[in-house]
Amino acid sequence: MSDSTRHTDTRERLLDAAEYLFAQRGVDATSLRHITAEAAANLASVNYHFGSKEALFRAVFARRIGPVNQERLERLDACERAAGQRPPELECVLEAFVAPALRLRLDPAHGGEHFMCLMGRLYTEPHGLKTVIFEQFREVFQRFTEALHRCLPDMSREVLFWRLFFTVGSMAHTMSAGAILEHFSQGHCDPADADKTIRYLTVFAAAGFGAALPESSGEST
Amino acid sequence: MSDSTRHTDTRERLLDAAEYLFAQRGVDATSLRHITAEAAANLASVNYHFGSKEALFRAVFARRIGPVNQERLERLDACERAAGQRPPELECVLEAFVAPALRLRLDPAHGGEHFMCLMGRLYTEPHGLKTVIFEQFREVFQRFTEALHRCLPDMSREVLFWRLFFTVGSMAHTMSAGAILEHFSQGHCDPADADKTIRYLTVFAAAGFGAALPESSGEST
DNA sequence: GTTTAATTTAAACATACGTTTGAATTATCG
DNA sequence: CGATAATTCAAACGTATGTTTAAATTAAAC
User: What does the alpha-carbon distance between residue B167 and residue A88 come to, in Å, rounded to a whole number?
Assistant: First the structure.
């Protein structure tokens, strides 16, 4: 109704081309001329439809990030329903966080591996855009932090944050650098197998979360 | 002797400035004019001393990466000596891999957090430079893979590679995105405390490596 | 002190960038 | 059909980029 049906497909073609090139070559290294050439559109069309390159980047992200975070929250809801009064299962919570992002690869309709790679890189890139985009993670972060706290009530906030941070690192690395693993493992590992990747990462992270607390620093064993 | 003593400190100033700015704003977003201004040197000095911006970037990296990987190998040697005939301790091996990189922050003489951040970002950045630089990781990767295989003889190559990959992801994320953790944890976590960070990451990764193998996919518990 | 090499400097190089403009074109609708 | 709005287009804008050049300066060697 409002206006989403008015747009020509030029808009979508620009978003697709930008998503693809941003993922492949980086944001700074991708020029509007690359993008418009890839999209078979005029150079000025980016500024006409989006206003600026930065706004285009934001639009590329805004188009996809919502569904991912929504699915995370839905899966977390499912975990908590399944657990009833008891705290949710740790592995279930971690999978709820990790799977929607890692499964992007299988879903070309939601950007496929291009968007997944771009999203994984976002955590690390030095763009000021991060701050804007991380707003969208706030609710996810809060909900999952609370759930993990219920899973592991004896764990300090500090350790819990650190371990969630490590998990995000493993996930982001998998999203953006899967090709490196494929290369170094010489065919032993297949990052394109999303189900297996999710299972491996969930098991790894759950075990990491479950490790004995290293808080008392005196012990040496 | 050869030529390393001939160079003026302009060379070093350029390397320092480039390291700082590459880490802070990204490689593509940093211009030679930024670098030469920061270094109080002439614009042409980069091309005089290094030949090109890309060669400068390589030099920035080559200056620091050697000692880090050397220390990794030395620490791994120490692990293996301490274990004698038995396989080395898993945590010892992981710490040998992780600590030299995470301790960069404390060592301004080796680039401090600037180089650490830049190095952490390297895994993810889309530069073709990666391929050149990853050559320098090959020996480290091979030695640590072998050591881990001795620690965990029943683990398949596939799972072992995946878990090492997850560990690298956690480490790289810590190196390049520590500020995010500091922000989201609202003061609960302090990424500047290198010793604690190393301990937390080592414990997390060791537990992840030690998780029951998820290979037989039928089980559901 | 003179000569030779190494380094620094200012200026210009050609190219690429993001953005803007105003006319041409296409679609929308009365 | 004619009028109005939306979109595309080629061209130019000013600015910034990495690199090169040739003269000026500094250091080294004899």
Answer: 26
Burial of A198 (0-12, 13-18, 19+ CB in 10 A): buried
Per the structure block, which two tokens stand in for A17? 């081309």
Q: In a mutagenesis test of the B interface, which of A139, A160, A200 is the best target, namely the one with the most B β-carbons within 10 Å?
A: A200
- Locus of tokens 């569904």: A67
Distance B28 CA to C30 C1' (A): 53
Residues 12-51, chain B, CB closer than 7 Å to nucleic strand D? 30-34, 43-44, 46-47, 51
DSSP letter at A136 equals G
Which of B185, B44, B220 lies closest to A163, judged by CA?
Answer: B185
Comparing CA positions, the residue from A103, A85, A87 lying closest to residue A95 is A103
Q: Tokens 């991912």 label which residue?
A: A68
Contact, A6 CB vs strand D, < 7 Å: yes
Structure tokens at A70: 């929504």
Taking the whole predicted model, whether its pTM rises above 0.90 is answered as yes
The gap between the terminal CA atoms of chain B, to the nearest Å, is: 66
Residues A41, A45, A47, A49, CA torsion sign: negative
- Which runs of E-coded beta strand occur in chain B? none
Q: Are B163 and A204 in contact (CB under 8 A)?
A: yes
Residue listed under structure tokens 């390393």: B4
- Written as tens digits, the pLDDT of chain B (221 aa) is 333 334 468 999 999 999 999 999 989 999 999 999 999 999 999 999 999 999 999 999 999 999 999 999 999 999 999 999 999 999 999 999 999 999 999 998 888 999 999 999 888 877 766 776 777 888 999 999 999 999 999 999 999 999 999 999 999 999 999 888 998 899 999 999 999 999 999 999 999 999 997 655 444 43
